[in-house]
Amino acid sequence: MPYNTKNRYEQGQALRKEIYMYIVSYIKLVGYAPSVTEISERVDAGRATVWKHINNLVDDGLLKTNHPSTDRAYTPVGYGIREISKEIK
């Protein structure tokens, strides 16, 4: 059976989308990014594969981080934590 490059590419894109959507939904629910272990368990992929896709998402501009290769140190572009003023008027 010949190697099907197109099929492997499409599988990789589907996994990358699943990882991205899980990160976004996790942040919306909990307020911070999931660990790579949590992602790998959720999408049924190895940690190295998840790291590869996270790095690709950073390279593509969909995720950002100030600390590459650090768990929970990435956020989707366009999401952020707003500073809330605790001043009482």
Helix proportion range: 40-55%
Rg estimate, integer Å? 16 Å
- β-sheet strand percentage: 5-15%
Give the strand order of the largest sheet, numbering strands 1, 2, ... along the chain.
Answer: 1-2
Number of strands: 2
The major β-sheet equals: 2 strands, antiparallel
Brief descriptors of the model:
89 residues, globular, two-stranded antiparallel sheet, disordered C terminus, mainly alpha
Describe this structure as you would to a colleague.
By secondary structure, the chain is mainly alpha-helical. The longest helix is centred in the first third of the chain and has 26 residues, at 5-30. It has a two-stranded antiparallel sheet. Helix 1 crosses helix 3 and helix 2 crosses helix 3. Helices cover 53% and strands 7% of the residues.
In short:
About 55% of the residues lie in helices and about 5% in strands. The chain is built from three helices and two strands; from the N terminus they run αααββ.
List strands and helices in order, with pairings.
Layout: H1 5-30, H2 36-43, H3 47-59, E1 63-65, E2 74-76
Antiparallel strand pairs: 1-2
